[in-house]
Amino acid sequence: MTIADFPAQSATELSLAATESTSTRVTVEGLQTVIFGPHSALYARVRDVVVALADLPGSERTYREETELAPDLLRAAIAGLGRPGHEIAADTWLRGALCDWAQVASPRLLLVLTGHFDLAIGAILALGNGSEYQQRCLAELDTGAALGVLALTELGGTNGADQQTRATWDSATGGFVLTTPSAQSAKFMPNVADSRTPKIAVVTARLIVDGRDEGVLPFLVWLRTADGAVADGVEIVRLPDKPGAPMDHAMIRFRDKDNDRVWLPREALLGGTWARMSEDGRLHCELEPRQRFHAAISVLGNGRLDLATAAIASARAAIAGLANYSRQRQPGDKRMSERDAVQLDLVRTLPATYAATVLGRRVRQMRAESVEPDAVQSLWSMLVKPLLSNAAKQVLSVMRERAAAQGAFRANYLVDWIENLEAIITAEGENQIMQVTAGKSKLDLTALQLPDTPALLPWYLKLLIKREDVIAVALRSRCYEPAGVVLGRDSAAIELASATAERLAATALLAEAAAATDPVAKGLIESMAAAYALGCIEARGNWYNAQQLLSPRMAGTVMHELVGQYRILVGGAPLLIEAFNTPHLSGAPMFAADYIEAWKAYAGWDDTTFR
Q: Whole-prediction pTM value?
């Protein structure tokens, strides 16, 4: 049985010919539980809200016009969900579903979601004190009347606790004065250039009290007022266009003149329970100055997770689109889907996509239940974001290439997803920096375990564990050669973070297989777990050979087993893809029941045109 044995249908209807049979429905529902957990109904409802926004790729708009779409889309999404912004931000599953489907069906909306919900509203919820000033800001963010952003990165870099933007306590006025002392300290890239929309920013700045450096803390700042005008003392310079992922990026300078400066009330400080400014101008803080920055950016963890799962959501949609198109495309006597090379591309991408999806969902579950301390949750996010977004990048690249001419046009969404993915890889911490930080963590990565990890592990997962253990020992001993082709500690740390994330992703699939009740779904999940782990081993073949962990005979076994699992997945692909619940994307021929008819409709042609 191959993918080609099934008739062409819309992306949401990919299934076996007997799609109404009870056994097929049970299998698909079992696979959807793997993807969405017990929240399939929530994800379906949010999907419909996002699709109804009708955020279609358009060729007639300029880059600047594209950047201006997001605020209206945000307000419409909040209204469609029927929940205020602070409730969406606080609901881990709702927020995740919104980001996932926005990346798929409203790519311009996705670009502002984590800044608004995770980094701005999230900071107020996590670090606010309930003051009138903060509540006024929150009320504007709740409806989308104002757009929330984080202004963290400086022109000289993010630089952690060494940021240079200053917030100086002014005892005469009982507030703070924000200043930009050098070009390097200008805030770089926050999306605040659009003058039509009010903007509220969480600005990280070095607090100076009576000449003392008190470390980097976050402050809540109205950057653009109700009519979009720039606040007193603020200079905003629009940055050049990007190739895609349109946002109104800008540089921000806080001027330092007596009659033109940025003054903030005492309540603008977001210090949570650990930092507050008393009325007499004293800072009361439980943390040492260098630790305050890390406490201040704790909200980044949610944003990293939301961006990661959004990235892999678009990988699922891309696979669904190509599968749908390939079963219609027939050059010569063979449909595209009958070609073994195309089938191989599909089944190579399915295990990585499912493994990344399941790991992201399980980390979200742990975050929703707060089963780990903040430092451990942060570590999970730093592992998940690179794994999921890098996997999505690989999948989207393959799907874009196989779609050929169809994939080149924005109408089929693939290129918009790829451009957004480039933004995701950079946002909330560039992927390589995340891997270096995670790999050098004081926490033991090899000790990280998912709930319900099976007690008995197959041989291929033990090989992933062995690689992780060898690299961890190399890092601890500062003898980095066993980590592979590395030049020092940072590149060895990247290898460790990658090895840990791959081990956890494979384990996540095995845990899902153990919990599955439908035998067909169980078998497919087990095949994907094996294929994913074996694929990781094959990709690291030189390393395993150098460590004398993979003999020629064993290497042959890996290849033989991998091909066997791929053959199983070719037959199960329609069910695996149907479980994605990908919506029909309006105006996208690759996702239509008949892509030729879709292009005819675009051209305004009918059957009489060619008589």
A: 0.94
